[in-house]
Amino acid sequence: MVQDCVFCKILAGELPADFVFRNGRIAVFKDIRPHAPVHLLVVPEKHIRSVNDIRPEDGNLLAEMLFVAKETAKTAGVAESGYKLLFNVERGGGQVIFHLHLHILGGFQGI
Ligand code: AMP
Ligand code: ZN
Predict the structure, then answer these.
(1) What is the CATH number for 40?
(2) For residue 58, how far is its CA from the centre of ligand 1 (angstroms)?
(3) Which residue among 2, 7, 47, 58 is least packed, with the fewest CB closer than 10 Å?
(4) How many angstroms separate the alpha carbon of residue 111 from the centre of ligand 1?
(5) The pTM is what?
């Protein structure tokens, strides 16, 4: 757990979140300020700052994040209509929480 990391605090139970999935390696919870009707965050329990910091040994974890994302999209009812998966990387890429997370965005109107 990294001090002052909001997502580490959520994962440690020190801050609330609306979890939809958790398996000990990966958690999925609802984004607090949704940018789409369905906006979920796929978050590894391991603190990794950003995509820039992923290592070869994180390969299985990253593959599982993608797998969990597509399963969660199904559960959330957006798999068929479609959704976006997004990593913001560092400040210039729009990242504001420096604990790796994959956005699932779906349920857009008109689709
Ligand atoms: P990013 O810009 O990729 O770092 O995205 C961080 C996301 O985390 C934003 O969409 C925020 O709305 C979301 N967020 C920030 N704090 C919380 C929180 N306490 N619980 C759930 N989502 C959060
Ligand atoms: Zn963290």
Answers:
(1) 3.30.428.10
(2) 22
(3) 2
(4) 25
(5) 0.97
